[in-house]
Design a protein that fits this description.
- Chain A: Belongs to the RNase PH family.
- The complex is a heterodimer.
- Chain A is of the alpha+beta class.
- Chain A contains four helices and ten strands; from the N terminus they run βββββαβαββαββα.
- In chain A, the strands form two sheets. A five-stranded mixed β-sheet of chain A has the order 2-3-4-6-5, covered by helices on one side. A four-stranded antiparallel β-sheet of chain A has the order 8-7-9-10, sandwiched between helices.
- The mean pLDDT of chain A is about 95.
- Chain B has four domains: about 90 residues, RNA polymerase II/Efflux pump adaptor protein, barrel-sandwich hybrid domain (OB fold (Dihydrolipoamide Acetyltransferase, E2P), Beta Barrel), CATH 2.40.50; about 90 residues, Nucleic acid-binding proteins (OB fold (Dihydrolipoamide Acetyltransferase, E2P), Beta Barrel), CATH 2.40.50.140; about 110 residues, no CATH class; about 40 residues, no CATH class.
- Chain B is about 30% helix and about 25% strand.
- In chain B, helix 7 packs across helix 8, helix 7 crosses helix 9 and helix 8 packs across helix 9.
- The longest helix of chain B is centred in the first third of the chain and has 29 residues.
- At the A-B interface, strand 1, strand 4 and helix 4 of A face strand 1 and helix 1 of B.
- Strand 1 of chain A pairs antiparallel with strand 1 of chain B, so a sheet runs across the interface.
């Protein structure tokens, strides 16, 4: 037995949560109004992410232009000081590249890209602190920043991770749990049970997959509600200011 | 630290999750039905915010405009914004977004690229706008044909980085704009200072170029690009649409002559010399420079307070800024807030 228990017999996890509890989720949109078209800041537990969206705009080169739809450019910067062991991660690291590819595929589906032909949408991410749930916090940050930029989307993509340990599904893992538990990350489309993203890098028994997915989807819905609340709060604030016009 | 519980039951996860999500769906439908009724019955659309994926109406009677998409008979919002209804057309206006050009908009743009018989102009929209060689006034008069030699010396007229004010002539299928500068009030900009504000803040008006007190004039581009410059003789003449000028023209002569407020074609030919594409600034005195700076910072203060920008407000903010000796101090947060408040209060006072 290691120093800590992933899931104690009393039903508590390392940070005192129960199996079906999310970490603290806080988000802000329109954090960088002057330097971007859309921006957001997401805190999921101790993970902190900034997202900046610029566009739709004229592509910098003709080669990356599509005549039928918008092209997405995503750059992900995991800062060296984000995790406990300070190490420099390059943008070309394979893991980062994989995340970028899966994000690109996810958002090409959920943005109504054919509304913006001959344009580029550039998404820049900075991970300031990382405590598990890298992909999920990034996905949520992108969703919020895209909404702030006024880019047409079919629905929210809310993302959360869930793991499986000792016959119990665990929701929203932190860094400690991620290293010991096999887990998946999903992106839920709005209030539906459709998935826009599913990433499973290790193994979960097939007969248990359904229960893990169920708790992850429920968690995704909760995060969608929290993001929606923030979008509405900001929208109402804007509308009240517009009264001055 | 507050932790958010997803489902409170202690039973097995799957059933819990199912029940929870079913409840969510029920609530959703209830809310949306009332929303749909709101739109139909009062005729006044609810001003609250809708967010992407939200059901706007399930009535197939509505035409789907911008900011919406549909599945079957249901219309959903695709952006975060407010519902707007024009007759049967239902659209969602995003809270934030890039400038969307419309025919007739008076805008300020920057040349981004010189191409085959055309310039690409950055106007702050999703794509660059196009300015055809055929839609500019070239030295030598309006009726001049554009020859091959004109094509070859396009950079002598307008080159990358040049600012110009122009009008949206038409829109292409994909929403990008085609511009023209076929009037004396349009053309290359010089003698001034450029400011960019969100395009949503610009109040659309009949006229977008104005003379300001203190020897400066302003072009408030509908796209949120603003040009402040020295008032010169030809500018004050080109600003012929300003009401006060017309009024003085009438009163001075006692009668209104047809075309006295506008530029005749013959004059247009006289003025269309190489002068209009000049890159050289006139002599600008240091007092005028500080006046322009003060105007620029007043506009920044208005933009910071998210107050709609019109020429009246620019002047009123400028007057409010006179309380501060150093115009560099105007960009302090508190000062900008005070100036915004004064502009709003002043309007309320005058409105009473």
């Amino acid at each position: 037995m290691s120093r800590f228990e992933i899931y104690s017999p009393e039903g508590l996890r390392v940070d005192g949560r129960r199996w079906n509890e999310l970490r603290r989720f806080e988000c802000r949109i329109n954090t960088h109004p002057d330097s971007s078209d859309g921006s957001s800041y997401v805190e999921q537990g101790n993970s902190k992410v900034i997202c900046i969206v610029n566009g739709p705009m004229e592509p910098s080169s003709k080669a990356e232009m599509s005549t039928s739809k918008a092209t997405l450019k995503i750059s992900l910067n995991v800062t060296p000081f984000s995790s406990i062991d300070r190490k420099k991660r390059s943008k070309n690291e394979r893991r980062i590249q994989e995340i970028v590819t899966s994000l690109k595929r996810t958002f090409e589906q959920s943005i109504i890209v054919n509304k913006y032909p001959r344009t580029t949408i550039s998404i820049t991410l900075h991970v300031l602190a990382l405590d598990g749930g890298l992909l999920s916090s990034i996905t949520n940050a992108i969703t919020l920043a895209l909404i702030d930029a006024g880019i047409a989307m079919y629905d929210y993509i809310s993302s959360v991770s869930a793991g499986f340990y000792n016959n119990t599904p665990l929701l929203d893992l932190n860094q400690l749990e991620e290293s010991d538990v096999s887990f998946l990350t999903i992106g839920v489309v709005g209030k539906s049970e459709k998935l826009a993203l599913l990433l499973l890098e290790n193994k979960i028994p097939l007969d248990q997959l359904e229960s893990v997915l169920a708790i992850a989807i429920a968690g995704g819905h909760r995060i969608r509600d929290l993001m929606d609340k923030e979008v509405r709060r900001h929208g109402d604030l804007r509308l009240s200011k517009l009264a001055n016009k | 630290m507050d932790i958010l519980s997803v489902s409170k039951g202690s039973g097995f996860a799957y059933e819990d999750a199912e029940v929870g999500s079913d409840e969510d769906v029920d609530i959703l439908i209830d809310e949306d039905e009332t929303r749909g009724d709101d739109v139909q019955l009062d005729g006044s659309v609810k001003t609250s915010v809708v967010t992407p994926g939200e059901l706007v109406t399930d009535d197939p009677i509505w035409m789907r405009g911008h900011g919406t998409y549909f599945l079957g008979t249901n219309t959903y919002s695709s952006v975060a914004g407010t519902i707007s209804r024009v007759n049967r057309l239902l659209s969602v206006k995003p809270i934030r977004g890039r400038y969307e050009p419309e025919t007739g908009d008076h805008i300020v743009g920057r040349i981004a690229e010189v191409g085959q018989k055309r310039w690409k102009v950055d106007i702050g929209a999703k794509t660059h706008a196009i300015l055809m060689l055929g839609s500019v006034n070239l030295p030598g008069g309006v009726l001049r044909r554009k020859s091959e030699s004109d094509e070859l010396q396009m950079r002598n007229f307008l080159k990358e980085g040049d600012l110009l004010n122009c009008e949206v002539q038409s829109l292409f299928q994909d929403g990008s704009a085609s511009l023209h500068t076929r009037s004396l009030k349009y053309g290359k900009l010089r003698n001034g200072y450029f400011i960019s504000v969100p395009s949503s803040l610009i109040v659309r008006a009949k006229n977008h170029s104005h003379s300001l007190p203190g020897g400066a004039s302003v072009i408030i581009g509908v796209n949120g690009y603003i040009w402040l410059r020295k008032t010169t003789e030809d500018i004050s003449q080109a600003n012929n649409t300003s009401l006060s000028k017309n009024a003085t023209a009438i009163s001075a002569k006692g009668q209104y002559n047809v075309g006295s407020g506008s530029v005749s074609i013959t004059r247009l030919e006289e003025e269309s010399s190489w002068e209009i594409y000049s890159d050289v600034n006139d002599e600008i005195s240091s007092t005028l420079r500080s006046t322009i700076t003060r105007y620029a910072n007043s506009i920044k203060a208005l933009a910071f307070c998210e107050i709609g920008i019109s020429v009246e407000r620019i002047i009123s903010a400028y007057e409010a800024s006179m309380a501060y000796e150093d115009s560099g101090k105007l960009v302090d947060r508190e000062t900008m807030e005070t100036i915004g408040q004064q502009v709003i209060n002043g309007e309320k006072y005058r409105g009473q």
